[in-house]
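Quick one - first record:
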Amino acid sequence: MAITSSLIALDPTRRSVRRTLALSFSGNYPTGGDALDLTATANPNNLEGAHAFALNPAVYGVRNVPGGYTAEIIAGAAPNAWRVKWYTAANTELPAGAYPAGISGAADIQIEVSSRTNL
């Protein structure tokens, strides 16, 4: 029941910013998806211009997941209220319980989010 996110790429333009985040999963997966707080995203590479999420991303998607699984990002009403929902097969949600090793041990799970810049 813990997702940590780290900023690994940043692509700012005049009107929007696209961020690529690496996600790590630990603990237990709850039915309906695990909580993802975008405002708690770390910036371990100290990427310049990486400001906190003040606005909810308008465009988002999953870039990379381990084989045998699919993931869905569920937008929240605020940047601190998003969810990640896992599936083992078409329309079969991962059952509640400890994350499988294929997810908790994966080092390359990534999502991409884009939002308007703070003007």
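second record:
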Amino acid sequence: MKTILYIDHSESYKVLLQEELSEEGHRVIPVNNIEEALSKKREIQPDLIILELRQKILDAKSFEKLKRRYPDVPCIGHSTYSECPSEYKEWVDYYLPKLPQSDGLKELIKSL
């Protein structure tokens, strides 16, 4: 299964998604923001990144650092926006809105 770096400021959503994806056999590493993810040094080697786009501190510079650290790791934008905002489209490889059920996200993860 996959090691997933999950970047989200919402504690409740991190817990929920970690439980659901762990049940699917994935290892989920939850962090609050990109800077926290980068501070983990090389101890994190994810197969996939899920990034909440409604971060308080989310800018192109931080995202570029993340992509330099993990250049070949696909990134799923995940947020309450119904569609991926145009300013984020160049940052993420895929986009799924946050929904009460996570079936769409689970299916996308399986396909990657």
